[in-house]
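Office hours follow-up: a student asked to see two folded examples consecutively, so here they are.
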Amino acid sequence: MKLSTRHLLGIKDLTPQDIELILSTAAQFKDVLQRPVKKVPSLRDVTIVNLFYENSTRTRISFELAEKRLSADTINFSASASSVTKGETLLDTVNNILSMKVDMVVMRHSASGAPHFLAKKIPAAIINAGDGINEHPTQGLLDAFSMQEKFGKLAGLKVAIIGDIMHSRVAMSNMYLLKKMGAEVTVAGPPTLIPKHIKEAMGVNVTYHVKEALEWCDVANVLRIQLERQDQPLFSSLREYSLAYGINRRLLDGLKKEIVIMHPGPINRGVELDSDVADGPYSIILNQVENGVAVRMAVLYLLANREN
């Protein structure tokens, strides 16, 4: 089987069959990662550039590790240490890199749509590692993989996405994916952090009460407040946010059932999640990190081997 697309620009562009193929391939690669020898020659002689115009820790390391596990040749590009600081344009930068015979580009950029722009201009396969407030497709895929691993299914699952929905590319990718795969989605947070027409646009439920969301859901995917993307204050203070929307052990223990806690990271401990929740028995946050490598291996492998 092959993916229906040459690039991974967003979950919005994938079919349910594409998603199933990526998740099933990721499961095979996760088995590989449990072996004493974790490296396979699947992408030998494939050259991949990691083009990061924004700071990143988990996503960048996860992609680099996935590439190395597949035996690809990798080039790491950081905008802060490049000719971008001298005024070089995005297209010039990439064309210069492509002249070195690069096959794939993993790209993170602060501008929404930057990977889509590149995909129209250059022949290499593009993987979106996060663009502005648009999408973060591999995070959406690894979140889905983690849920499927835990529950054995996505269809019919009740997932609450809690926090800064307005500025979260993770939320967008999760909503697109979960709806395509038959899950139910509720978004929860302060009214100022939830887009006004999201219910109609995305087909999700909306609540402004975190307890209501937790009582409804099987899984709570908790997001951090993205202060760096807010050009004006949208709530009174982090302390007030934590009191109204932070998730602590007392709140979870008061539920009539057990739910699963997820977080894409980085966690602002004591704000959206207390440490005893993030590190507690409800949490599969470290599973998400582990699964990220297998999912990114699957995406790289499938795009590199697609017959164009």
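And the second, which I mentioned at the end of office hours:
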Amino acid sequence: MNAEDNHVDLRVRRTRKLLWEALLDLIMEKDFETINIKELCDRAMVHRTTFYSHYQDKYDLLEQGMQAMYNEMTSLWPSPEKALAQFGWHTPPENFVHIYKHTAENRDFYHRMLCRPGVSSFRSQLSQYFLEYAQARFDRIDLPDSQVPAQAILRFIVGAMLELVTWWVESERPQSPEEMALYTLRLITYGVYPTLGIDPQSHNP
């Protein structure tokens, strides 16, 4: 890449960064559906024609921005299979820790994507990652016959993990990523009652 191409590439990245940050700021102020292109361009100090040279509409901006953050998030994580190879009953998988560390480092983004109304796509992406992890775990073990379908159990685990991350973001992260990863492991592995030290067989639901 020559100097001119590099300059153009830097200008493109800067413009995209300004528009993405403007969108995130506006999402904190109002519902995504009410945001218009003029507001985005005014906030980013970018001309309207410049916006349309990069994105089709605000939905395209949102989708590309979320995908870029998701790719960054997962690129440094071990695959579910690799993480499970290091699995221990008292040591959380490495990717559990990475999830909470990335959340801590990008709290504003997670708060906007998980805790604000009107932005559900990123929750879906994160849910899919959790589902892949849980499915990989199930694939490694012989599941006994159960009164609860395996897919119902998987969805329960995914929902629990997603809500734990969301709660941690909303509560200003009083626990460290390592602590949250361990709590997640204990709740998924042992369930609520055993984690509380209660024998489910001797305690009413």
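Two things to take away from it. The mean pLDDT is 82. Residues 76-202 form a domain with the Tetracycline Repressor; domain 2 fold (CATH 1.10.357).
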